[in-house]
Amino acid sequence: MYSALAGSVKPPTRDGICSPVSVDHYENFPVASWLCPPQLRPAVVALYHFARTADDIADEGDANATTRRQLLADYRADLARVYAGQPPSERWRERVFAAVAQERHRLDPALLTLLVEAFEQDLEPPRYQDRAHLLDYCRRSANPVGRQLLALYGQTDPDSLAQSDAICSALQLINFWQDFSRDGPRGRLYVPQSDLDAHGVSADDILACRDSPAARALTQALCQWARALMQQGAPLALRLPGRAGWELRLVVQGGLAILAKIEAMHFASLLRRPRLTAWDAPALLWRALRMRA
């Protein structure tokens, strides 16, 4: 059910843990897997391709920031056209907006717009001052996905929304701590300044992926934060009925498994990127089966 689509933790194409729809990038969590009810798959796939394409605009290729910003503005304009009942431009019509148009009665344009805003922010990411500042980014980059999926499942009570936000923010944070070696060369720093200061680590150390005992202690603290958020939201997986609950159990356990892999590396994710493989699937399934309140 939950994938923090496009920019957070992501679903597999080659060696993943579930059977996803065909996608173009290696990712760690399922999109529209066999656990997703068939009647919801078109909306989930439309959501995925909308977010994935926006992420590619922000990240892929050699375009400069000005060009990317204009493309994202065009993308947002196409979204507005679709919801105004007008045809989008040709550029993304077949891959993205034809499906969005078909599912627009089930997809919230405000949540889709928040995702695009997050990708726009990634073009010139700020230095995050504290954890609250970074969680505000997660509010746009990850939480809209969970809220949209909850709406598809008809679960929009305040407790469910809060727990969904906790899970999605945790997934986004886990992706950050998993991707130090990718984000550093791109000049992207998602570690709050308050955490850097508390551990005596500089922003340049993280961007250059310089490993040290202090950097590992920092990574350990960041992983503990993400784990606490995941545990805060995890009861939602036990409360959601049927397939939705089982899919969310797998996503929760997948996020926790990445944290466990970082811990097994002695928190050296500045040096290499941990990842899930098909060999992890039995353990994830077992842990999902054994989840308790």
UniProtKB/TrEMBL annotation:
Record EC number: 2.5.1.21
PANTHER family: BIFUNCTIONAL LYCOPENE CYCLASE/PHYTOENE SYNTHASE
Keyword Transferase: yes
Enzyme type, top EC level: transferase
Domain of life: Bacteria
Protein name per Swiss-Prot or TrEMBL: Squalene synthase HpnC
Cross-referenced SUPFAM superfamilies: Terpenoid synthases
Transmembrane region(s): none
Organism: Roseateles paludis
Entry-linked InterPro entries: HSQ_synthase_HpnC, Isoprenoid_synthase_dom_sf, Squ/phyt_synthse, Trans_IPPS_bact-type, Trans_IPPS_HH
Molecular function GO labels: squalene synthase [NAD(P)H] activity
Alphabetic keyword roster: Transferase
NCBIfam families in alphabetical order: HpnC (TIGR03464)
Originating gene: hpnC
Gene3D superfamilies, per database record: Farnesyl Diphosphate Synthase
Entry-linked Pfam families: SQS_PSY
